[in-house]
Amino acid sequence: MRKKNRSRSKISRLPPEIRNAVDEMVKAASDFTYADIKEYLAGQGVDISISAIGAYAQNLSADLEAIRVAQENFKVLVREAEKVPELEYSEVINRVAAQRMLQAIVAKPQDEWDDVRLDKLLKEMNGMTRAVAYKQRIEVQNRSDAEAALAELKAEFFSALGAEHPELYRQLVQVLEKQQKEAAQ
Questions:
Q1: Which has the least CB within 10 A, 6, 39, 130, 142?
Q2: What is the C-alpha to C-alpha distance for residues 112 and 117, in angstroms, rounded to an integer?
Q3: pTM summary value
């Protein structure tokens, strides 16, 4: 599928202050007609057709709608993230996507399931399962790497403390042993 080329309309090439004024006029469609916009641009020394203004207005409206939808989707992600703050945003995105897919599956009429290829559906489900398993495996690996690094850091710290400040080392060991005994009881 080809990507849509970036629009280089006459209006989009105008100086920012003129283009911004046109954008505001397009957004206030109840107050300005395309003829009003054409008249404004003519006053700025720009000759343009009403159909070109219409095409620009449609593209601008589509872009603004896409931004609105993206903002709404982001709000949904933030709300989900606030429910479980210990989750990373990638996990939240996966949860929201899974929820939306489940809603789509449940809402799909039974007669449309006849057109779905089972092998493709199973392949997609398998891919999602692998992604979740991979993420969990990486989390466990990172946790064990961090624990090993912490243990090594502790060993180096106590070794240096024992060599440079033996009295402080003995006091610290006594405090730790006391804490361990109290925790065991």
A1: 6
A2: 11
A3: 0.47
Helix, strand, coil fractions of the chain, as percent rounded to 5: 80, 0, 20
* SS (HEC) of 50-118: HHHHHHHHHHHHHHHHHHHHHHHHHHHHHHHHHHCCCCCHHHHHHHHHHHHHHHHHHHCCHHHHHHCCH
Mind listing the pLDDT tens digit for each residue in 111-157? 777 777 778 777 877 887 888 788 878 887 887 887 888 888 888 88
3-state secondary structure of 49: coil
Task: Measure CA 86 to chain center.
Answer: 16
Task: Give the closest residue to 68 by CA, choosing from 27, 101, 96, 104.
Answer: 27
Integer Cα distance of 89 and 142 in angstroms:
18
